């Protein structure tokens, strides 16, 4: 991974953790806007990692729910 990706992933994880802790998703958008004002490349990578993490969480929820149901 590149330096930009490392930073973007770290920021995405921190923002999503803060959003989960506080129940306020606006922080994710605020960080994205802040990054876009300075570095569009970093913003794009950050937003990609946010989408990946959210998609992963949704997929894991579905798989966990399926695993809790009896087979058959």
Automatic annotation (TrEMBL):
Protein name, as recorded: Uncharacterized protein
Origin species: Loktanella atrilutea
């Amino acid at each position: 991974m590149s330096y930009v990706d490392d930073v973007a992933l770290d920021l995405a994880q921190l923002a999503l953790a803060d959003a989960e802790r506080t129940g306020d998703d606006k922080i994710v958008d605020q960080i994205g806007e802040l990054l876009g004002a300075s570095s569009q490349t970093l913003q794009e990578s950050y937003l990609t990692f946010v989408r990946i993490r959210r998609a992963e969480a949704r997929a894991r929820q579905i798989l966990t729910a399926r695993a809790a149901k009896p087979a058959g």
